[in-house]
Design a protein that fits this description.
The chain is α+β, with helices and mostly antiparallel strands. Helices cover 25% and strands 14% of the residues. The protein has helices at 50-54, 56-71, 105-112, and strands at 9-12, 27-30, 88-91, 100-103. Strand 3 and strand 4 (100-103) form a beta hairpin.
Length: 116
């Protein structure tokens, strides 16, 4: 756990040494006046939300949908229930990431609450 000095942390990948030292490796610095300008190496999950760490299959499915849309392998469709063009991808089974139903936010929320 990094100490809280009340200043913003800045991380860099460590592909090359930073200007304050010659050690190569991922680490953080603080902006502003702080007693220590250098901290310990970053942990693999630092900066990731707890949800991402707990739900890697769901995260991968969301990522796959985003990539398919961006690459033109999939097209966003209107809501299956009302026809709204503001539709979101709904997964019934996250192990089949590209098998989705397109639902507007209202009907997507209803589906998660156990609606039609």
């Amino acid at each position: 756990m990094l100490p809280d000095h009340g200043v913003a942390l800045v991380a860099h990948s460590g592909a090359f040494p930073c200007s304050t030292h010659t050690r190569v490796g991922a680490h953080t610095h603080v902006r502003g006046n702080a007693k220590s300008r250098h901290y310990a190496p970053l942990t693999p999950l630092m900066g990731r939300s707890p949800w991402i760490a707990k739900n890697p299959t769901k995260r991968r499915a969301h990522h796959d949908i985003r990539n398919a849309l961006r690459r033109g392998r999939m097209n966003r469709e209107p809501c299956k229930v009302c026809g709204s063009t503001e539709a979101e991808a709904h997964h019934e089974d996250y192990s089949r990431p590209l098998d989705v139903e397109w639902l507007c936010p209202k009907h997507h929320a209803e589906r998660h609450r156990g609606g039609p």
